[in-house]
Amino acid sequence: MKLTSYSNFTLRVLMVAAARRPALTTIGEIAGAFDISRAHLTRCVHQLGQWGFIETFRGNKGGFRLARAPGDISVGEVVRRTEEGFDLVECFQPETATCPLLTRCKLRPAFLRATEIFLGTLDGVTLADLTANGDDLLDALALQPPVAANCGAAALALS
Known about the structure:
Layout: H1 5-19, H2 27-34, H3 38-51, E1 54-57, E2 63-66, H4 75-82, H5 107-123, H6 127-130, H7 134-140, H8 148-158
Antiparallel strand pairs: 1-2
Helix pairs in contact: 1-3, 1-4, 1-7, 2-3, 4-5
């Protein structure tokens, strides 16, 4: 199983937002830190805003920040939203499956259990878990940690 770049980029956006919380982050900062296309990140940020994971602010001092606490965002929830589906094999959709073994196969239930375990494991991992070492992550990306004095000023300016 391989997750799409979209899932990967979306999780990176959330990780940086969590590590920089409550400060605002910009798409440009993340694009530069990860050497990712701004267009791809714009799509991720827009969708994360639509889903309620982040709040976005337009304008010269704009950016985005988490709309929910990092401990309230599970990786499983994000991956379920960013991936089209988890059909590892065609028989996951019995109505379109062509395999003649469908009703007798022991492989399909094993794949179904494995998928449930995979997603269940991701459900148990939160954004807070991923960013417990937030300052180290920001340092590795050459991004500034949040500055308490500036966070309040930015929030007031955006109100």
